[in-house]
Specification:
The structure is a homodimer of 113-residue chains. By secondary structure, chain A is mainly alpha-helical. The first copy, chain A, has a two-stranded antiparallel ribbon with strand order 1-2. The first copy, chain A, is globular, with a radius of gyration of 16 Å. Chains A and B meet through helix 1, helix 2, helix 5 and helix 6 of A and helix 1, helix 2, helix 5 and helix 6 of B. Chain A binds a DNA duplex (30 and 30 nucleotides) through helix 4.
Chain lengths: 113, 113
DNA sequence: AAATCATTAAACCATTTGGTTGAATGTGAA
DNA sequence: TTCACATTCAACCAAATGGTTTAATGATTT
């Protein structure tokens, strides 16, 4: 089973530019830490720490594949934080009823945790 | 003129439960720090620091009104972070084209900063 | 079996964070 | 003017953060 998303952890993970860049890179294509390291000015050990923080926030998954750990995005935590913000963003709320009609989900009842 | 939104600051501001609770409370109704303090177990000085962090992230505005400073939400920063996340959330992207038709805006072109 | 490559672990460091308390400032009310 | 109230400022503290370097682990290649 999967753990519940920790909102503190998710936003905290997203508050660092290096970590958001990791997300950007993985958005295009899966990669290992070594492959990612090329795009960052920090040590791969530091990068590994950032990856662990993202994993702990359930923003990405690590899958052991032979010599490598393949990193890929996990939508779950991003969606949770998206829902939190969208609830408090009027711009979004204004479009919510219309949106719900389209995607067939109800997200307008009750504040997120 | 208004400053550009600092993504680090916005997500960092959102990563604390007390600060998210401030946003929740202000979502319903404007308030002063003293009024908010009732709902928190920390000192009003600590709360004042949290408010300053939210202000610095452009998530809320402080307006001097006599003896009080009235706090109210500013949608700008929340929308910016919403856009960032939505770009990397597949769930959302899947609904984006449909949504854009409805709200008549284009947000699918180009990654956010 | 030895060498190499990808990753993790551990110790360390400077800075930031989230809280405290006590004092200062500014405004409104008595 | 004096008193009370709302807020800010300053000094302090413990814990967390983001980086470093060196060493250890584990899988693949030679």
């Amino acid at each position: 089973m999967s753990q519940p998303v920790d909102t503190d952890k998710v936003f905290s993970a997203l508050s660092d530019g290096n970590r958001r860049k990791i997300i950007e890179l993985l958005h295009n294509k899966e990669a290992s830490i070594i492959e990612l390291a090329e795009f960052f000015p920090i040590s791969f050990q530091a990068l590994s720490k950032h990856v662990n923080i993202l994993e702990s926030a359930q923003i990405l998954n690590k899958e052991k594949k032979g010599k490598y750990r393949v990193l890929s995005l996990n939508q779950k935590a991003l969606q949770t934080s998206l829902e939190w913000i969208s609830y408090y963003s009027n711009f979004w709320n204004e479009s919510f009823d219309k949106l719900n009609v389209i995607i067939g989900e109800s997200k307008t009842d009750g504040a997120p945790e």
